[in-house]
Specification:
Blueprint lengths: L4 E11 L5 H12 L2 E7 L2 E9 H13 L6 E10 L7 E3 L20 H7 L43 H8 L20 E5 L4 E2 L4 H10 L4 E4 L4 E6 L3 H11 L7 E3 L3 H4 L3 E2 L2 H8 L5 E6 L15 E5 L4 H7 L6 E5 L11 H8 L5 E5 L11 E5 L2 E6 L9 E7 L2 E3 L9 E10 L9 H18 L5 E5 L5 H8 L5 E4 L1 H12 L6 E11 L5 E9 L4 E7 L2 E2 L5 H4 L1 H13 L9 H5 L2 H13 L5 E2 L2 H11 L11 H9 L11 E3 L4 E4 L1 H12 L4 H27 L3 E5 L6 H13 L3 E3 L11 H13 L2
Parallel strand pairs: 2-5, 8-15, 10-13, 12-16, 19-21, 21-22, 23-30, 25-29, 30-31
Antiparallel strand pairs: 1-3, 1-4, 2-3, 6-7, 6-15, 8-9, 9-14, 10-14, 11-12, 12-13, 16-17, 18-20, 19-20, 23-24, 24-25, 26-27, 28-29
Length: about 750
């Protein structure tokens, strides 16, 4: 060592295991002629580096600037230490520590290098459907514990052959310590079965599966985070059979195409959307349909968009390169059930849907549905945050205690906190049955184990009947902190942007339990992390039939019409009223008058439902949010006017829906189209809530507005309200890292609970 020699001990925290980080460090040390060692630890990666001061400095600079594609460096602690005169640089065995705080990489798509090998007839892994390296493939769904080493993954059942082991042991190879490393000689295999579980002996089951899809059969295909149900998206009969068997009448199906060129045949994608499609996460991206389209209308009926993704596993590529424009690739489940991941479970649950099963023998430890995103105003917006993004954490402004937040009942996700990090789970689903509830419990246990976090606080929704509330109450941990639903929505967005209150929060959704036991959903809050004030809301109207009104928007239409016109609403000349039996009108009226099974709601989501039904767009829905979605899809490009609106001032502002409803009825009676009415309705809401924020902001001295809740999945409302508020000199914040719907609410629950516990 020269007289200028120095030594540093570097501790790197982040996603630095299973992503080729140690061989990257090895090669970087070789580049600068430095000595020392590198090892995985339970808290990340530990590096001892020594050599000339200038070269050590260059090494440190390159460490963060040139790290592997899947690595996410959160923190580097650098400490000057004594020179030990290492003879060379080595990669040493993983070192256990008392506390686990390393981050785990999500599952990501096959990389370009592996794809080239997959399609190269001269490569030893030609057409091997489980090809991967340190830059790609499964991670989160196959890991059982950390440090992330092969014996703690589902690959422990496959002993590497000599060739694979040589790659695995070579620091200069891109498969160095790639835990799922395998080949056709030593790794997992694919088999084809019929739905009676009879194995079909074939040389190439993937080619036969493609042929069956071309013939119109439905296949259950085991993927990265679970099973898909697949059908040819250009075959109307196949898609309709899939709908009937899956009990999914109209909700759009996702499709997968082999490349962007294929996607351009049936959908429009701008540069931002193509960037999302080709990202390593490979989410489903909502793309505007081409008209006419070469895909059948049954893929996404009454919708302007297709949900589209590119292949992310080698198996997907091998299937799709058989000449398909697109395959329907929808979750392998019956509607409302968790996606199947186990082969036995898949045969038991999907045999009535799929004609054939393309399965493999690599276990999936934790299911993970496809993520769904939409590009709005040049920004990625999550509709579902799952495969490809979980378990990358959300980073908070301040450290918080270990908290388990249990989420909501619809679109459930949970989260667990560690210092300044929030680990939001993958999509769990709607907690409507025992199977999904068991998935919730499994996910919570898995997160606790792989993160080595024991929660000290439980956060949960105020609704007493939610299964997530039941789950919270079953936990032995105390304290347990209730968090109001819409407060959690606003704070989830505040947490993303590292904001502190007070500020104005617009929390718009379909359902949330209020502090007065009513059903909230059109809320203007003055929000801080620890508390909120309800500054305003949509005026209450009855919700006849309770939850039945969610599935039957005509019920909400009658409630809004009665609110606007009194009992005279029955005399209105509206198509909707002629379609409903007189006896039903009488019963609904009595339910509202007597308050029998007619809870009061301030929900903006229910107002969207009511307007959709009044306009004749949708009287019954087959999935949550369908009426509101179709109302948005139908809207004309621009509205030239708005409806009258009004609110009643007071300690809490009451926004009156009646003037808007009367304006809509008048337009209908004058023959205005539903498309024009929808556009006018959207613009009215934008103007109304902008004006209201201006009044409240001036009164309270507030100039920041946060937008959250499922209604803000509506592109017209999100974009229009953001623009209008910014023109009034507000700074506007909306979701970018988690969904605005209930899939992001656990984040808000955790931060609220932390704030309350610290007071």
């Amino acid at each position: 060592m020269t007289e200028n020699g120095v030594a540093k001990r570097l501790k790197v925290n982040g996603i630095v295991q299973g992503v080729g980080f140690r061989p990257f460090i090895f090669q970087l040390a070789e580049k600068y002629g430095l000595k020392g060692d590198v090892a995985n630890t339970s808290s990340g990666v530990s590096i001892h580096i020594e050599g000339p001061a200038g070269k050590v400095a260059s090494f440190e600079a390159d460490l963060s600037a040139k790290s592997p594609p899947l690595a996410v460096i959160v923190e580097i602690n650098s400490q000057r230490v004594a020179v030990k005169n290492y003879p060379d640089f080595t990669i040493t065995k993983s070192k256990g520590e008392s506390r686990t705080s390393t981050l785990i990489s999500p599952d990501v798509s096959i990389c370009d290098d592996c794809l080239a090998e997959l399609l190269d007839p001269d490569n030893r892994r030609y057409r091997y459907p489980f090809i991967n390296c340190t830059n790609c493939g499964p991670r989160y769904t196959i890991i059982d514990d950390i440090p992330y080493d092969r014996p703690k993954t589902s690959m422990r059942h496959f002993k590497m052959c000599a060739a694979c082991q040589s790659e695995y042991d070579d620091p200069t190879d891109r498969r160095f310590h790639a835990q799922p490393n395998a080949c056709a000689g030593c790794g997992p295999h694919v088999c084809l079965y019929d739905n009676q579980r009879n194995k079909i002996s074939l040389k190439d089951p993937i080619d036969q599966a493609a042929e069956l899809l071309k013939q119109g059969y439905i296949l259950a295909i085991k993927g990265l985070g679970g099973y898909h149900l697949a059908a040819d998206a250009a075959n109307s009969d196949a898609v309709m059979r899939l709908r009937r068997r899956k009990l999914r009448e109209e909700k759009p199906f996702a499709v997968m195409s082999v490349d962007l060129e294929s996607i351009r045949r049936y959908a429009l994608a701008d540069g931002g959307e193509e960037k999302l499609l080709t990202s390593i996460q490979r989410p489903i991206v909502l793309l505007r349909k081409k008209n006419p389209s070469c895909l059948v209308k049954e893929v996404a009926p009454k919708n302007k968009y297709f949900g589209v993704m590119l292949p992310y596993t080698p198996l997907h590529y091998l299937l799709l390169k058989q000449g398909f424009t697109a395959l329907v690739m929808t979750s392998g489940n019956l509607s409302e059930e968790p996606i199947a991941i186990d082969n036995d479970d898949a045969f038991n649950r999907l045999a009535g849907i799929a004609d054939y099963f393309l399965v493999h023998d690599r276990d999936i430890y934790l299911r993970s549905d496809d993520s769904i995103v939409r590009n709005i105003a040049g920004t990625k917006r999550f509709i579902r945050r799952s495969r490809g993004f979980v378990p990358i954490p959300i980073f908070l402004k301040n450290e918080v205690p270990p908290i388990l937040a249990c989420g909501a009942d619809l679109k459930n996700t949970i989260c667990i906190t560690q210092q300044d990090k929030v680990f939001l789970s993958q999509h769990i689903g709607d907690l409507e049955n025992l199977a999904t509830y068991e998935f919730l419990k499994l996910t919570a246990a898995h997160l606790r184990r792989i993160l080595d976090i024991q929660p000290e606080i439980i956060a949960y929704d105020m609704h007493p009947d939610y299964l997530s509330t039941q789950f919270a109450r079953e936990q032995e941990v105390t304290p347990k902190i209730q968090v109001q639903h819409h407060h959690a929505h606003i704070v989830s967005c505040m947490a993303e942007h590292k904001l502190e209150g007070p500020l104005i929060g617009l929390s718009f959704d379909g359902t949330g339990y209020g502090t007065d036991a009513a059903i909230w959903g059109g809320e203007i809050l003055i929000a801080e992390e620890h508390d909120f004030e309800r500054a305003g809301h949509l005026a209450y109207v009855a919700m006849p039939g309770g939850s039945a009104a969610v599935k039957a928007p005509w019920r909400m239409a009658l409630s809004y019409l009665r609110d606007a016109y009194g009992e005279q609403f029955r005399e209105l000349k509206l198509p909707l009223l002629t379609e409903i039996e007189s006896a039903k009108l009488t019963v609904i009226g009595e339910m509202i008058t007597k308050g029998v099974n007619a809870p009061m709601t301030s929900s903006l989501g229910r107002l969207f439902d009511g307007v959709a039904a009044i306009c004749g767009i949708r009287s019954q829905v087959n999935f949550e949010g369908q009426a509101a979605m179709e109302l948005e899809m139908l809207a004309a490009d621009a509205a030239q006017s708005i409806y009258d609106y009004d609110w009643i001032a007071g300690d809490t502002v009451n926004v009156q829906p009646a003037p808007i409803i009367r304006g809509i009825v008048k337009d209908l009676q004058q023959g205005r189209s539903a498309a024009d009415i929808s556009a006018k309705f959207h613009q009215t809401l934008i103007r109304l809530f902008t004006d209201l924020c201006a009044v409240i902001g001036k009164d309270r001295g507030l100039d920041r507005v946060v937008l959250s809740g499922g209604v803000f999945q509506n592109s017209i409302l999100l974009t229009g309200l953001t623009d209008a508020l910014e023109k009034r000199r507000f700074t506007v914040f909306s979701h970018r890292q988690v969904p605005s719907n209930d899939g992001g609410i656990a984040l808000g629950q955790a931060v609220v609970a932390a704030a309350i516990s610290s007071r």
